[in-house]
């Protein structure tokens, strides 16, 4: 019997969202195990044995254990080769894809202020410098998408899958007006209609964010 792909996830995590998209794009099914971060389940001995850093998401397949969302995306594409490839074949777009997925971790993610705005409930005044830095970073990605349907080539790649949940988070959680970034806006509207994305639980949970987290809907929209 073939091993089962098991995805350890947290419902509203943008990193969980990335993995869900990749699995659906590849036509793969998974057994989902929900880890409640608010209850500290990520620190359990059972989960620590899967990811020693106690972070979501994680994925197992037989004896293989993979953590870090972008590493999981690469694992999914490489370990399960089929007619859908999420990694460009030609050197130019392969180079772009690899550049972008690394920049998501090294350049974009460090500027992500969702934790401060949502969990620490900090507002625009407290986050002014970080908001400015984040807008500048988003502008860089808007430039990457100039005259393009996808980030790296003529079809969806790991770069698009890694980037979309981040922009969904900026829009739904922090109130970013995507119209301010026309290239991203056009790309986002195409991406959100994909079967792997449309109807994902992220959007339903985002709509209930204020109620769930006890947030001020105006204060949390620090990018508006």
UniProtKB/TrEMBL annotation:
Q: Which residues form the GST C-terminal domain?
A: 90-209
Q: Cite the GO molecular-function annotations of the record.
A: transferase activity
Q: Where is the GST N-terminal domain?
A: 3-84
Q: List keywords of the entry alphabetically.
A: Transferase
Pfam annotation, one family: GST_N
Give the source's domain of life in one word. Eukaryota
Would you identify the family this protein belongs to, as annotated? Answer: Belongs to the GST superfamily.
What PANTHER family does the database record attribute to this sequence? GLUTATHIONE S-TRANSFERASE GSTA, GLUTATHIONE S-TRANSFERASE-RELATED
The name this protein goes by in its record: Glutathione Stransferase
């Amino acid at each position: 019997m073939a091993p089962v792909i098991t995805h350890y996830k947290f419902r509203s995590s943008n990193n969980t969202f990335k993995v869900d998209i990749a699995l659906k794009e590849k036509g793969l099914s998974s057994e989902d195990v929900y880890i409640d971060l608010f209850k500290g389940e990520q620190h359990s001995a059972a989960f620590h044995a899967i990811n020693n850093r106690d972070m979501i998401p994680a994925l197992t397949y037989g004896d293989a254990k993979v953590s870090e969302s972008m590493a999981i995306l690469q694992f999914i594409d490489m370990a399960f080769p089929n007619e859908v490839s999420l990694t460009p074949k030609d050197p130019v777009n392969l180079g772009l894809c690899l550049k972008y997925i690394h920049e998501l971790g090294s350049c974009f993610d460090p500027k992500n202020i969702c934790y401060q705005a949502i969990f620490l409930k900090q507002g625009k005044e407290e986050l002014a410098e970080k908001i400015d830095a984040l807008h500048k970073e988003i502008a860089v990605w808007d430039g990457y998408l100039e005259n393009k349907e996808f980030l790296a080539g003529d079809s969806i790649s790991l770069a698009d899958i890694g980037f979309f949940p981040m922009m969904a988070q900026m829009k739904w959680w922090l109130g970013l007006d995507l119209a301010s970034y026309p290239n991203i806006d056009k790309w986002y509207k195409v991406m959100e209609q994909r079967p792997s994305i449309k109807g994902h639980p992220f959007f339903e949970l985002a709509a209930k964010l204020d109620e769930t987290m006890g947030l001020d809907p105006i204060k949390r929209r620090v990018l508006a």
